[in-house]
Design a protein that fits this description.
heterodimer, A: 197 residues, alpha/beta, Rossmann fold, 6 helices, 24% helix, globular, B: 251 residues, TIM Barrel, eight-stranded parallel beta barrel, 11 strands, 38% helix, histidine biosynthesis (chain B), EC 4.3.2.10 (chain B)
């Protein structure tokens, strides 16, 4: 059963709807004790990374999340939260995965936000089991996670190569929105819910 | 590489889709949920719902519809029509809408763009602009092209980008309904001025028109209604045609 960190950063209706379609059961995590109830944890997130981090701190869950040993998936800003730092609001983040979140540079001749369907190249990783190379996922973001071969499990290109997904131990993050990425996105969510460590 | 998006637009009134839609295997052509699922199945990259309800119950009706759509749909969708304040947008966001589009309310109160962008992020705010060529100038119009404003289209779009619009939906009222092709000249000009995505709208009549608007104006997305609803263009065929013309699409 999946626990969703309920910290008020963006709407989670689409995420819970996707889990419903996949027959994955879920509940909300509001307190540290709630973390015990679930086998898998999702950190959702939309909006400003710095502001999202402040909201997460407000729940008092930060240290408990960092200590988790069960599978954790950060989505979009939720993924950025598990990195070390974001240029958005010059924010120090959870630093579970020691990589940085940076702003897209429009001098690369790209539009910002990066909005729409882009090809993702997954490495051999359980989260992407059954997902072919160059499968497209739906992205909406203005900040990206720097590519680091140690933690990257799927890359994408937008002006430069960046991490569409990262992993360190039990912590996973995806920059795209699996709940909005058609069948491929649903497969990633399903794979996550089936992860056993 | 980022794909060019194909976006069917659905008109909604009192929670039901209007305008004839003749997909063969639809049980209920007025059911936005079924229609949306059908388009997603065909390979639409995104959907726009334009609400034309004019009753006091609209927010409640719309929120219910958005929830029903979000429960079933696994691609992003935008809701437009009648959004005049933060509370309207918030209700739609919480019901599962990915973006909202604003038009006349932003013309009357440009600060709305800024307020929405600050509250929900620029990615949530689509500015829809209806434009018409008048005396050698491109002028912003309201009420489906019936009411001219004092705003020049290019200036208004630039201002909206500065205020925090995350995307522009530009409809040429001169081309809309003609099925003679998109206004590639204006779209290209506007596209070069801004650094946010632009959706072309108005004039789609054939698959070649889509190829043309992506090649000539390099827009990020193209929107159409009747050619899709009446089955004149099937999205899988359109995607193949675009691919043949080396336009990046999601198949």
């Amino acid at each position: 059963m999946v626990g969703i960190i309920n910290y008020g950063a963006g709407n989670i209706f689409s995420l819970t709807a996707a889990l419903d379609r996949l027959n994955v059961t879920y509940g909300m995590v509001n307190t540290e004790n709630d973390l015990e109830k679930y086998s898998h944890i999702i950190i959702p997130g939309v909006g400003h990374a710095g502001a999202a981090m402040e909201k997460l701190k407000g729940t008092g869950l930060v240290e408990a999340i960092k200590k988790l040993t069960k599978p954790v998936l950060g989505i979009c800003v939720g993924m950025q939260l598990i990195t070390e730092h974001s240029e958005e609001g010059d924010a120090s983040l959870l630093n579970v995965v020691p990589v940085k979140t940076k702003k897209f540079d429009k001098s690369l001749n790209i539009k910002i936000p990066h909005m729409g369907w882009n090809a993702v190249n997954p490495k051999n990783n359980s989260l992407f089991e059954g997902v072919e190379d160059n499968t497209q996922f739906y992205f909406v973001h203005s900040y990206f996670i720097e590519y680091n071969p140690t933690f990257d499990i799927a890359s994408a290109d937008y002006g430069l190569k960046f991490s569409a997904a990262v992993q360190k131990d039990n912590f996973y993050g995806v920059q795209f929105h699996p709940e909005k990425s058609g069948k491929a996105g649903e497969l990633v969510l399903k794979n996550f819910s089936n992860l056993s460590l | 590489m980022l794909s060019k998006r194909i976006i069917p637009c659905l008109d909604v009134k009192d929670g039901r889709t209007v305008k004839g839609v003749n997909f063969v295997d639809l049980r209920d052509a007025g059911d936005p949920v079924e229609l949306a699922a059908q388009y997603a199945q065909q390979g639409a990259d995104e959907l726009v719902f334009l609400d034309i309800t004019a009753t006091h119950e609209r927010r409640k009706t719309m929120t219910e519809m958005v929830k029903s759509v979000a429960r079933q749909l696994n691609i992003p969708f935008t809701i437009g029509g009648g959004i005049t304040e933060i509370a309207d947008a918030e209700a739609l966001l919480n019901a599962g809408a990915d973006k909202i589009s604003i038009n006349s309310a932003a013309v009357r109160n440009p600060k709305l763009i800024e307020d929405l962008a600050k509250t929900f992020g620029v990615q949530f705010v689509v500015l829809a602009v209806d434009t018409k060529h008048v005396n050698g100038k491109n002028m912003v119009h309201l009420n489906g092209g019936r009411l001219i404003t004092e705003l020049e289209t290019e200036n208004w779009i630039k201002q909206a980008e500065d205020l925090g619009a995350g995307e522009i939906l530009l409809t040429s009222m001169d081309h809309d309904g003609t099925k003679a092709g998109f206004d590639c000249g204006l779209l290209s000009k506007v596209n070069q001025m801004i650094n946010i995505p632009i959706i072309a709208s108005g004039g789609a009549g054939s698959m070649e028109h889509f190829t043309e608007v992506f090649q000539k104006a390099n827009v990020d997305a193209a929107l159409a209604a009747s050619v899709f609803h009446y089955g004149e263009i099937l999205i899988p065929d359109l995607k193949q045609e675009l691919k043949r013309n080396h336009i990046p699409v999601r198949i």
